[in-house]
Specification:
It holds the Pfam family ECH_1. The longest helix is centred in the N-terminal third of the chain and has 21 residues, at about 75-95. The chain has a six-stranded mixed sheet, with helices on both faces. A three-stranded mixed sheet has the order 5-7-8. With about 260 residues, the chain is an alpha/beta fold. The protein has two domains: about 5-200, Alpha-Beta Complex (2-enoyl-CoA Hydratase, Chain A, domain 1); about 205-250, Lyase 2-enoyl-coa Hydratase, Chain  A, domain 2 (Orthogonal Bundle), CATH 1.10.12. Helix 2 links the parallel strand 3 and strand 4. The chain has helices at about 30-45, 75-95, 110-120, 145-155, 155-165, 170-175, 190-200, 205-215, 225-235, 240-250; strands at about 5-10, 15-20, 50-55, 100-105, 110, 120-125, 130, 170, 180-185. The two termini are about 25 Å apart.
Length: about 260
């Protein structure tokens, strides 16, 4: 895998792990990081050997845009447009990934880091980590998909509270709100993140991909349309080798060994 200036990328059998590692303070988002993130996610989405994608950070997750690269006036408008647009290409790639995506929030996830952190299919958060919308502190609006994800995860009223009051949210509170999947002790964070990722990677990849797509896209359909999509998806899944393996294992009272196709 290519060496990156702002990312650590490792592929261990069927799990690909991306760790954000910005040279800017608190793992903040730079233009280089946004560009590299899009490049690597696109490449991993095209890699048929990858059956789960993990996105996390080194020391912190991501504290938002690197403010030291800005001037604090109207000259920043085109810079922020470029940074947001590049970041959003990565967000779309994560959103449309055929493999399950797990994000691991270790340390602060703020600003642009919120959209990236909450964009996983499953989200593991260390007990000492925090989530904060953060944009009101500098007079800006949300990006990175945060304003799309928040109302879908917690409802419109709660999303407005999180965005407008802009208070830090601890791990246990994030779980209770439905922002993240689970909270784990900091000293077992990496172990749990790896375990969740491996469980997904060992699953029936095509079926999991279709299932997460059905769930995500259900917001855009009425019931009849959703039922039609379910019919198509289950018939398609029945043509996979993983279905044959799962079916055989069921009658043999054994655990299936899925191969991802």
């Amino acid at each position: 895998m290519t060496d990156y200036k702002t990312l650590h990328v490792e592929t261990d059998e069927s799990v690909a792990r991306i760790a954000l590692d910005s040279p800017a303070g608190f793992n903040s988002l730079t233009t280089t990081m946004a560009e590299e993130l899009f490049t690597v996610i696109t490449a991993l989405n095209d890699d048929e050997t990858v059956r789960c994608l993990v996105l996390t950070g080194t020391e912190a997750f991501c504290s938002g845009a690197d403010l030291t690269a800005l001037d604090g006036d109207e000259r920043d408008a085109p810079r922020l447009r470029r940074l947001a647009s590049t970041l959003h290409d990565s967000v779309i790639q994560l959103h449309q990934a055929d493999t399950p995506v797990v994000t691991g929030i270790n340390g602060v996830a703020a600003g642009a880091g919120v959209g990236l952190a909450l964009g996983g299919d499953l989200v593991v958060m260390a007990e000492d980590a925090t989530i904060q919308f953060a944009y009101p502190e500098i007079g800006l609006t949300g990006d990175g998909g945060a304003t799309f994800l928040l109302p879908r995860l917690v409802g419109l009223r709660r999303a407005k509270e999180i965005a407008l009051l802009d208070e830090p949210i601890g791990a246990d509170h994030a779980v209770s709100l439905g922002l993240v999947t689970e909270s784990v002790p900091a000293d077992s964070f990496d172990e749990r993140l790896d375990a969740v990722a491996q469980r997904l990677a060992d699953g029936p990849t095509a079926a999991l991909s279709a299932t997460k797509r059905l769930l995500t896209e259900s917001f855009d359909r009425d019931l009849a349309q959703q039922l039609a999509k379910e019919t198509d998806a289950i018939a398609t899944a029945a043509r996979t080798e993983d279905y044959q393996r799962g079916y055989a294992a069921f009658f043999e009272d054994d655990d299936p060994e899925f191969i991802g196709r």
